Amino acid sequence: MSQHNTSLPERLKRRPVAEAIARLDRMMDLDKGRMSRDIFWDRDIYEQELEKIFARCWLFVGHESQIPKSGDFVSTYMGEDNVIIVRQKDNSIRGFLNTCPHRGNKVTFADLGNARQFVCNYHGWAFGIDGGLKGMHASEAYEATGMDKNEHSLHPVAQIDSYKGLIFATLDPNAPPLAEYLGDFRYYLDAIFDMDEGGTEFVGGCVKSVIQCNWKYASENFVGDILHAGWTHDSGAKAMVGGSVAEVHKLPHESYQVNFNGHGWEFNQDIVGNCATLGDKDLMKYLYVLQPKVQERLGEVRSKMIGAISSCTLFPNTSFLPGQNTFRTWHPRGPGQIELHTWTFVNKKAPQEIKDKWRKGTMMTFSPSGVFEMDDGENWEYSTKTNAGFVTRQQDLYLGLGQNTRITDTDLPCNVFRGQVNEANQRAFYQRWLDLMKAQEWQDVPQRDVPTLPTTSTKETA
């Protein structure tokens, strides 16, 4: 399904490096668990993020369940670049910048739908679902100039591919293949997106909201921050299910943090911990009944992850919570704002009443009015806003929990750390961020974690 395009324009590849970028090494000391607040506030750093992170990395752009038929499309963002993802007549998937090459207007304002063509409102330029320019209003005027329509198609994304129903795209033709980008982390993704025959689907549409925070605060929270739940979300948990989560960091089950090239997952082995916060016994029963089947399919370790207390971020800006089944992307809108897109994912073969319960449960917990979302949003906003102070920005931030907790005597893939009360995944996240920000090309990005798994992974290795 992978599609390729020509190289990036030279003007994009040779932009001058801002002074803030040149001093990045002095702003980060991850071995000591220290980093500068400027990375959450500096406008030059943000502009470089758009180029070095969002115009380079593989980004989540949709789920295959959203575009099952030819002509089905979704519009979304890659950084601040608006894109259209559309199913082709041959069942492949392609992506294009959502901008007319004539005057730059958006060619579709819809979030999703089905189209035979996309027509720009401004001058009537019409494009097929393959991106090609088919015609325009007063076409004879253009023909008189000798214009070649083949030279004015919608600009394609450089590569597009999918894994277990999740569609990713990159704007960089030199980016490694998606399988390499995800690497060994696919082993863990299978625990959620391949736990049941038939895979997963999105239900209930997309909920959009705006939070006044830097995108990295949200991503690093989901990459592995169980510690905040026992304090931030304790009152919300009491309101939802009448129980406390204050001692969540002391749960007796085996727990880990794992990371690979900036992707991170924290999890324990309690099977239904996250799901329990929804307060619905039918959902927990569904997972308990499914667990033995998952064990047979994927092995014991992953069968205990299916709804456990856990969270995950796929670098740079896609996160999800198993059990609560919320899936989200943190789209940057400047150093101090994100646009959050949220969906509910479910097993495609789950009974309809189970799907409905999960959709309602995620709305109660992780939506703009959800009891947990409001807690997080307020924390991220004030973590960002306090950096307005000049003297405040001279004070480093600490992320040193869990030093020297790496496990080497395990068959589990990726970098494995013992315990969820840890900031190993945060350090790995920011190391990947730093490596990409400093690199001029993909070939310059250090290969700290080399993938060892085959292209697909379903059976237990531990």
Briefly characterize the structure.
The chain is α+β, with helices and mostly antiparallel strands and 462 residues long. It is 29% helix and 23% strand. The radius of gyration is 22 Å and the shape is globular.
Textual characterization of the structure:
By secondary structure, the protein is an alpha+beta fold. It has 2 domains: 103 residues, Rieske Iron-sulfur Protein; 260 residues, Naphthalene 1,2-dioxygenase Alpha Subunit, Chain A, domain 1, CATH 3.90.380. Helix content is 29%, strand content 23%. It contains 16 helices and 22 strands. The strands form 5 sheets. Strands 13-19-18-17-16-15-14-22-21 form a 9-stranded antiparallel sheet. A 4-stranded antiparallel sheet has the order 6-5-4-7, with no helix packed on it. A hairpin with a 2-residue loop joins strand 4 and strand 5. Helix 4 crosses helix 16 and helix 8 crosses helix 16. The N terminus and C terminus are likely disordered.
Q: What attributes does this structure have?
A:
Naphthalene 1,2-dioxygenase Alpha Subunit, Chain A, domain 1, 2 domains, alpha+beta, 23% strand, 462 residues, Rieske Iron-sulfur Protein, disordered C terminus, globular, 4-stranded antiparallel β-sheet
